[in-house]
Amino acid sequence: MDVLDKIDRKILEILAQDGRITVTELAKQVGLSKTPCQLRMKKLEDAGYITGYGAILDPERLGEGHIAFVQVTLSDTRSEALNAFNEAARQIREIEQCHMIASHFDYLLKIRTRDMANYRKVLGEKISALPHVAQTSTFVVMEAVKDRG
To answer: In what residue span(s) does the HTH asnC-type domain sit (predicted)?
Structure first.
């Protein structure tokens, strides 16, 4: 599947908003019957446009409402060091997102914790202990204005 048409894009848009929608309702919203809609969904899954389905959880209700973004600068940016950092970062539950950045720092992390005290512990015991970390800088979120989940 090389090119997405407007129906494929509409299917993806609707599923991104409501992954639990029935195929019958999805087909109705995109103007198809059920079987062609199912076939398109299967093609989108097989082609990797849809990588999975899951529940969007409320971090506040789960006691993880504190968000901080952390700039990380490494002491070594050769491939071996980057790979070691990447693998270790994937193992830390509190790191919700980890992005390598083209900037004056190397990584931007989104960290979710219970509160500031818990964040300080995660920063001191986990993030600072990641391979090749030379420096970190924290930005605490005061309010999430838009978050895709």
So the answer is: 4-65
